[in-house]
Every structure is written in C-alpha cells, then in structure tokens.
Specification:
Blueprint: E1 2-3, H1 10-23, H2 36-43, H3 47-59, E2 63-66, E3 70-73, H4 88-91, E4 99-108, H5 112-118, E5 126-135, E6 138-147, H6 150-156, H7 158-168, H8 179-185, E7 193-202, H9 205-211, E8 218-228, E9 231-241
Parallel strand pairs: 1-4
Antiparallel strand pairs: 2-3, 4-5, 5-6, 6-9, 7-8, 8-9
C-alpha cells in the first residue's frame, strides 16, 4: 500500500485545468474543444496525458463526443442513478470474490466529480482511496473512492470518520478493504441509500497499466454516490474491463 501526501495526480491537475477553462467561459456550454494536437500544444502537455484527462471529463459529464464534430462542452452534468449498497468485491464475486489491493491512500482537493457528488467546497481535503480488485485470473477492477470532508463526516457519520482515520494509519501489510466496506461496517444501525450509473467507456493509458490491459480495452464504468439522509458521504468510480466477473443488477416491478 502506498500512502502519500501528494495533493493531485497529474491527470487530475490537467483535468482541473480544462474544467476551469470550461467554468470561466473559455470553452462555454455548447462549444467545441480544439483538436487534440492543438489543445495539447496550448496546454503544454503530451497527447496521451491529454487524452486521459479528456476521457475523465467525458465520464464526469462535462464533455460529449459527437461524431464528425469532436468534443463539445455539455450545458449541465447528466443525471445519475443502480441502487445496491454492497462492496464491489462482494457484488461481483458472490461472497468469494476478488481481494482488495490498496494502491493509494491520500488526501485530494475536489474535482468537478467530487464537487458535484459530495458537495465539497473548492479547498476542501477529501480522503481518496485507489484500489485494485484482484481475482484468480488477475486484476478484475480498479476502484476510486472519495469520502466527504472530515468535518461533514464528523457531523453526519462520526463512526465512518473514525474508521477512515484508523484505516489511513493501518500498517501496509494489513489486509486492505474498500472504502465502501469500511462505510458499511460503520453503519450497522444507520440507514444508507445509494445511486449509481453504468456507462461504457475505454480504460485509458494509466488505468490500462494498472489493470495490465491495453489503453483501448472496452470497460464498464460504475459511478456510485452513497448518502446518509440527504448528506452524501462517499462517491466512487469502479472500472471493470472486458473479461471482468459479471456485475449482477437486481430489478423488480
């Protein structure tokens, strides 16, 4: 497990530069972004790094790719909704699924995704956990999880706040857990509800490296927001590449 005080991963910093340009009107709603070569030159970054950040912006609903047009800026973020509060490692494994391998446990400033879903102020510090779910056949999923600011958790769910602090200081050789499993363990007598969205995407370079797959591997992205009452306490992105265990979806009428 890697524990870091690094504020922003490079792709997140680039994501924020482009998102800031959207919000300050440089790229207003409905406008089309410059081509990748031109935008990379304007920002002084490599095209692979730019492509990774643009992919995240598409996933978070800030951009849309239109055939023959390019990437356009959305007027408003999409609505999201897959209700089942259960750790992914249990959900895709039927109780005997992949183990959690911690990659990163750190603090990050909010991005548009976490600002939108956790209602976090711009200069807040959010706990960020990055994990790989590893099954018998190798890496099965990549999980990014963020908790609401500590001051919010101390007010609406102090047991979860305490459990996260304990988890952040755990020895590297301790068995890893997902943030959602920590939340559920701390919520034995507290009602939770969640909303999730499922979309098709590509892994991208960095996530492909983490999962041992090519960057252009098709994948399913599951976004999830868990609330206590009206207060969001956890937001997550789970990336499942082609060949990952099946993700059951329960529906009723």
């Amino acid at each position: 497990m890697t524990v870091s005080g690094h504020r922003r991963r490079p792709v997140v910093a680039l994501y924020e530069r482009i998102a800031d340009a959207v919000h300050d009107g440089t790229y207003p709603p409905g406008s089309t972004l410059p081509s990748e070569p031109k935008l990379a030159a304007e920002l002084g970054v490599s095209r692979p790094a730019l492509r990774e950040a643009l992919l995240l912006l598409q996933e978070d609903g800030l951009l849309t790719v239109r055939r023959g047009v390019g990437r356009t800026v959305n007027a408003r973020p999409p609505r999201r909704g897959f209700e089942h509060v259960q750790p992914l490692e249990e959900l895709i494994g039927g109780g005997t699924g992949p183990r959690v391998r911690a990659l990163l446990r750190t603090l990050e400033e909010p991005t548009d995704f976490t600002t939108q879903h956790l209602l976090a102020p711009a200069r807040a510090e959010l706990r960020f956990w990055e994990s790989v779910l590893v099954g018998e056949a190798g890496p099965a999923a990549l999980c990014h999880e963020w908790a609401a600011p500590d001051e919010v958790l101390d007010r609406v769910h102090p047991a979860f706040a305490a459990a996260l602090r304990a988890g952040a200081s755990a020895p590297p050789d301790d068995p890893a857990a997902s943030m959602l499993s920590v939340l559920l363990d701390a919520s034995r007598e507290l009602a939770l509800h969640a909303h999730s969205g499922i979309t098709a995407t590509l892994l991208g370079r960095r996530r492909g490296e983490q999962l041992g797959r090519p960057a252009d591997t098709p994948a399913v992205l599951v976004t999830q927001v868990v609330r206590v009452g009206d207060s969001p306490v956890l937001a997550a992105k789970h990336m499942l590449p082609t060949g990952a265990p099946a993700l059951p979806v329960l529906q009723s009428h």
